[in-house]
Amino acid sequence: MSKKPSSASTAKRSTPSSSVSSTEREEFFNSLADPEDPESISIEGLGTLCEQLGIDASSDIRALVLAQKLGAGSQPGKITRAEFLEGTRLMNVATVAQIQARLPSLDPGFMDRTEFRDFYRFVFQFNREGTHKTIEKSLIMGLLPIVLDSNRAPHLDFFMQFLEQQGELRITLDQWESFLQFNSAIRLDLSNWEEGGAWPLLFDDYVEWRKKNGSA
Amino acid sequence: MSDTPTIQLDEGWDKNIKKDALGPLENLLEEGINKKKGRLFSNVEYSNAYTTCYNMCTQKQPYNFTEQIYDRSNEAMLTYLQVKVLPSLKDKTGETLLREFIWRGDNHNIMVKWYTKFFMYVDRYHVQYHQVPKLGVCGVRNFKKIVFDAVKDEVTSALLKLIQEEREGQTVEGDLIKKCIQIYQQMGMGVPDVYEGEFEKSFLEESRAFYARNANIWISEESTPSFLVRVEKILEDESNRVTRYLLPSTNPKLAATLDKELLEQRITILLEREGSGCRVMLANDMMDDLSRLYRLFSRVSNGLEPVAEFFKAHLLDVGREKIEQRVARLENTDKEKGPASGEAKEGNDDPQFIKDLMAVHDKYTKMVNEQFQSNALFQKALKEAFSELVNTDSGRYKTADLIATFCDRLLKSGSTEKLSDSEIEEFLEKSVQLFSYLQDKDLFGEIYRNQLSRRLLNQRSASDDMERVMVGKLKLSCGAQFTAKMEGMLNDLAICAEMSSAFESFCRENPDRTGLGKTEFSVQVLTAGHWPQFKPLNEITLPSIMHKCTQAFKEYYDAKTSQRRLQWTHSLGSAMVKGTFQQKRVFDIQVTTLQAVVMLAFNADSLGGVGGGPVSFQALQENLNIPEDALKKALHSLVCGKFKIIKKAAASSGSGESAAEASAGPKEDKVIRPTDSFQFNDAFTCPMRKIRIPMASLEESHNMKRVEEDRSHAIEAAAVRIMKARKTLSHQQLVSEVLQQLSFFRPDAKLVKKRIEALIEREFLERDPDNPNVYRYLA
């Protein structure tokens, strides 16, 4: 489960003085680990880390970027020891202060299209609950404004209004991912929207809603 | 031996040939051949001329005059034509000209014949050797050059005038025209140019102009049918004309001209006229006129398309009228029965409507085959019209339901209509025809299967043969997959009949082992997959005698088979219960298992107790473990039906009003409530010994939800199959291929998209990351 890098390799290399050792990273992990599940860091653990970093986990996108960079991926809402160790190794961090120094690099503005797409997908997968494959509407409506802005998603405001008016709803990964593409493919005034396309039905409904209340 | 004297050219020519042969020939011709009987020249006369020619042509040079004779013969002929023949034609016109022309033509043929005879030697040898035309050919050319070309315009004019007169109704001598035309043909020397250029062209133009003028008049004065009759006659007459005196090659050209002038230019007017156009003809069943219309318009390119359009429109009108009539009937029934009525206002049983549709279909299929000669355009129109009609909703129930119920009526026993087998089969055949137009065939299948199962299990099927016939027809129409379950049901019963009777024998022979004594008990074993899903009601608490029956059978069955699980479906069973009223009147009561269980609960050894005191609804429900809905239906049939063998116990509220209620209330009350109590109705009586108490069905006629679920599965299965084979496909292609694969219903694109999204969620497919319009198969 947890992978300890061989001490032989660390010994052979002449490590630069700024490189953190695996021991330090292990300690870092342990400090954040979930007491009930010491092999992983839970959402609360991440929340603590964010506090220490001075960022608001519920509204700062960097929190999510950080979670991704720290290696989260196999399960929603937590990071395993192995993931964390690898993530910190790649980031070359083992203390809150070191991460603090890296905060600016966590801005998604640096990501190119592909990287952002991966990140965007990660946000969905990470925010699921347990074995559920979908996320309920209210949480989605909380996440979208954090992750997207009107540059990457011109439709965001209208879409949020639209979602507001729908009843209980759960969003699938397909719909989440497609939303990003929808924003880059379809103009805000819907002038290049074609009927009978492959977009998920949710977007057909959105377009209809736009047309009905005269915003397109 | 040539010791005959040498013949000099001029001498020989002038004397023997010209004087003795050519001259007389000319004279004979001038006077008229008929005047002389027999051959024109005797053998002696002929051989003289021939021999002279021969000699002059075989003499040694320089006395060999072959060439000269050849040339002089031509000259002679030309001269004659120029001097005698041409002038005689030039001073004539009209019919006179034609007669002279013919005469001169005949004469010329005779002349050429004799020239050829006289100068045969030249014709045979000189011609070939020197590559010059034969005398026959020269003859024709000479005539053409001198005579024909000079008079052809006049002759053509005269011919056309005669034809015109005939067209206007006068009698003319067709033979004149015929013979002239033969000369034209001859002038072509094997090629049709002369006939076509000098006659036919003008003829066609005049014909066109004539009919163009007249057609306008006729059309404005006559109705379309009458105009068409006229056109048909014209076509016939003109065809005869060509046969009588023109060349056959003119036929198609003339026909084309007429078609264009009389029909093609006038399609729209003829069809769309208000008072007598296509619509009117169809509405008034003017069969002959429609046949004629078809015959004539099929001559013209794109002539039939508009007719087919009218046909389709008319058919839709007629069909829609029937639909409206049905809707009106339903509304009237509503008004009659009133909103407070407990009976169903609109049922799925409307045989009138189905028969109406069948009648319309029959009538217009016949029209397609007879009036329109099974032409593909009309078959298509019929198909499109009926597809629309059959898939139009006419009320709460879909047409698929109505057709299925119609078939149910035909196949059920005990119907009041007495139809012969062949009549029934005919109706079934027509039902399948209507069925073939349905878009939601799967819905029909679902309903039909449910109705079939009820017929079979309640023994209300009139004829097993007829059931199989119908299934066979459906199979032909749709394939074996569609009818697999139906056949399964029919086969199940055939098979289980054997087992049933074996079990019955077993019971009779072993009354003690089974513990059943005299109770007769039979079981039908069904294969679960073939039959609709029934509410089994197998948790109900059976009275002990029934319980013994089921146990006995289970033991028997387990011994006979291995690894089979039996599930009792008490909702389907039936029983014959013997009821004794007033301690003496006995009735045999035919009921369902469920009713029997309820009835037996009122026995002394059961809930009814010795005094037969009231049993509450609750008590029944708890003790018998019957679901509320089913219990209500069973009690309703026993308390509120025709034979009231159970009655409602008086309400025990103790107030004065309740007594009045008790006497007046329960009799009128047709509703079973969970608060009611019930009692055995000892006072029951009835004139018959054997009665049947039917019960409302526990099942719905079909489960639309099931149909919709099946559809979702079908769409997904098709999509996965297609993607597995194709690996990647655009959205539009996938949707279109899925629709192609679904033969029993037609979903809208939205439903297909929904199922595709479901497949994406279940990771059968994914979207291409670079192109959201394209799907990829995930192995």
Structure characterization notes:
The complex is a heterodimer of chains A (216) and B (779). With 216 residues, chain A is mainly alpha-helical. Chain A has helices at 7-12, 22-32, 43-53, 61-69, 81-91, 96-102, 113-126, 137-147, 156-165, 173-185, 201-212, and strands at 40-41, 79-80, 135-136, 170-171. The longest helix of chain A has 14 residues, at 113-126. Chain A starts with 6 loop residues before the first helix and ends with a helix. Residues 6-15 of chain A have low confidence and may be disordered. A three-stranded mixed beta sheet of chain B has the order 1-2-6. In chain B, strands 3-5-4 form a three-stranded antiparallel beta sheet. In chain B, helix 6 (135-167) packs parallel to helix 8 (193-221). Chain A binds chain B through residues 117, 133, 172-175, 177-178, 181-182, 185, 196-201, 204, and chain B through 730-732, 735, 749-750, 753-754, 757, 760-761, 767, 769, 772-775.
Shape of chain A: elongated
Rounded mean pLDDT score of chain B: 87
H/I helix tally of chain B: 30
For the sheet with most strands of chain A, the description reads:
2 strands, antiparallel
**What form of chain B results from the Cα inertia axes?**
elongated
Unreliable stretches of chain A: 6-15
Order of strands across the main sheet of chain B: 1-2-6
The quaternary structure here is heterodimer
